[in-house]
Amino acid sequence: MKFMQKVALAIAGIALTATQFAAAQTLLNASYDVSREFYKDYNAAFVAHYKKTTGKDVKVDQSHGGSSAQARAVNDGLNADVVTMNTTTDVEFLAKSGIVAADWAKRFPNNASPTTSTMLFLVRNGNPKGIKDWNDLIRPDVKVIVVNPKTGGNGRMAYLAAWGYVRKTGGTDAQAAEFVSKLFKNVPVLAKGGRDATTIFLQRNIGDVLITFESEVVSVDREFGAGKVDAIHPSVSIIAENPVAVVERTVAKKGTGDLAKAYLNYLYSDEAQEIAAKHGIRPSNQKVLTKYASTFKPLQLFPVSEYFGSLSEAQKVHFNDGGQFDKIYTVK
Amino acid sequence: MTSAILSTSPLAGGLPAKRATRRVLPGFKLTLGYTLFYLSLIVLIPLSALLFKTFTLTWVEFWAAVASPRVLASYRLTFGASFVAALVNVFFGLLLAWVLVRYSFPGKKIIDALVDLPFALPTAVAGISLTALLAGNGWIGQYLEPLGIQLAFNRNGIVIALIFIGLPFVVRTVQPVLEDAEKELEEAATCLGASRWQTFRYVIFPTIAPALLTGFAMAFARAIGEYGSVIFIAGNMPMISEITPLIIIGKLEQYDYAGATAVATVMLGISFVMLLVINGLQAWQRRRSGGKS
């Protein structure tokens, strides 16, 4: 009889831990490709923070891929609780199909962008071609590696940054179009995405300069060893927001609304902003930004809205079929 | 053989009409039903979803999506490069199959297994390793570039990648036919005074021609749809080295689902017509070579 009691107790114990385990809520974060390392660190910090403040266990799963591909996956049914993207276009797309709240940009501070990034140049060690600013990229002896704006947000931002540089220095739209067109004539290989571009530049040794996100500098140093490339800060660049949003469709189904909100809110905490800074992602918190001033050298930044209205409008004018970018490659 | 068993046999043995329509093997209705159901589930439903998405476009939008200069250039490249790659594969695939069937040498089993590698390998891996080999600083590329031969990041790269992924199709379709080919016929031809070339031209080639065509068609079809290996080695420059699958991905990136499926539908249409033509050619071949299949 005693033995049976023990067995019953053991079974009850197992059942109890099992239910407790099942009770631990899970959260799925659908994010873009190169944020993998950042969110790995951030998730660990958030899980600890959530346990401390609410006493509840939570498990955060990550899903990474191209930013638009991730947005399409969520649109088509991926049950992510939150999306953390690198272009506002991707979240706007989800808002348009009603999966994300229409006023998503107002739900969190700073346009719902806890962090930003900007476009920088990477050149080979010692900067053999003496590249300093956008003007150098249209020199006939310079080969530029950039992501295809048709297939990657990274490329769209590089294109818009170049365009904005001309406008910022007093040029007209026509001059900007000519400048960008000249720049893309110097491109020997159009990369498919951000990581592809880095591989072409560093592993294949093609090109003299790579235009990419500031955060990629940190990954390059980590992957290829520090000192292989120098980061060049041009005089002017663009602010690329990293928007976040709660996926209303999923949280309504799973009942994870509060958790999702807490997850995204914590991105604005000092601790999370520091983690972002360590990964080369610009914090929105000024205090943290100044603390890491050596990484985030001050440069003149302009928002997309200054010259292009919004990213979706820029998409229509510049990158959709028949737009400005297509003209570069169809008019001989 | 199978068609003979399954076909209705209007037996001349004076059986009642009802019995004459009965099949020799049981379960025909069940298997046919299953076949149709399964094919619908796996092939027809996804393909019709493609068409339905395309139908959301007006004719003008459809035409704009599928006939812009960039897209036209990509069709030319995709079908052209696939054609060239399939041709190369027919020639060298036949050679490989020949060696594997007719000769024995140490390590033959390993080489035989190697042929299947492009089947199993993730295509992105193929693309990355080919690029690593052929790029200007790659193992092979570094010797070719000073000679002015550039194989990666242009159309040459695309053709090479497509040759790689298409190779097993030709070898694996020709190999069994060569194995089954009757040696006696060749011996007879030789006895009758035929030269080696004549034996090949009149005895061996007609036997394997349908298989070669099939291999060509499969390698060609496979190459048209190839994405993973090509984008790593192509350079992806619009109008020059941009394949159609990349255009489709580009359209998806701008959330143009309908445009992407429109281009996909055109691809599907062209591929289907080409497969029909090749099937017709095969049937003609078979008739010409005396109904042997």
From TrEMBL, chain A:
Name of the protein in question: Thiosulphate-binding protein
MF GO annotations: molecular carrier activity
One Pfam family linked to the record: SBP_bac_11
Gene3D superfamilies, per the entry: Periplasmic binding protein-like II (3.40.190.10)
Cell compartment(s), UniProt: Periplasm
Keyword Hydrolase recorded: no
GO cellular component: periplasmic space
Any one of the GO BP annotations: sulfate transmembrane transport
Highest taxon listed in the record's lineage: Bacteria
Family per record: Belongs to the prokaryotic sulfate-binding protein family.
Keywords: Periplasm, Signal, Transport
Signal peptide from the UniProt entry: 1-24
Keyword Signal carried by entry: yes
UniProtKB/TrEMBL annotation, chain B:
Name this protein carries in UniProt: Sulfate transport system permease protein CysT
Primary role: Part of the ABC transporter complex CysAWTP (TC 3.A.1.6.1) involved in sulfate/thiosulfate import. Probably responsible for the translocation of the substrate across the membrane.
Localization terms from the record: Cell membrane
TM helices/strands, residue ranges: 35-56, 77-99, 119-140, 152-171, 202-220, 227-249, 255-278
Keywords: Membrane, Sulfate transport, Transmembrane, Transmembrane helix, Transport
GO cellular component: plasma membrane
Assembly, per entry: The complex is composed of two ATP-binding proteins (CysA), two transmembrane proteins (CysT and CysW) and a solute-binding protein (CysP).
Domain ABC transmembrane type-1 residues, every copy: 75-278
Pfam families reported for this sequence: BPD_transp_1 (PF00528)
Membrane topology (UniProt): Multi-pass membrane protein
Top-rank lineage group of the source organism: Bacteria
Family: Belongs to the binding-protein-dependent transport system permease family. CysTW subfamily.
Recorded GO MF terms: ABC-type sulfate transporter activity
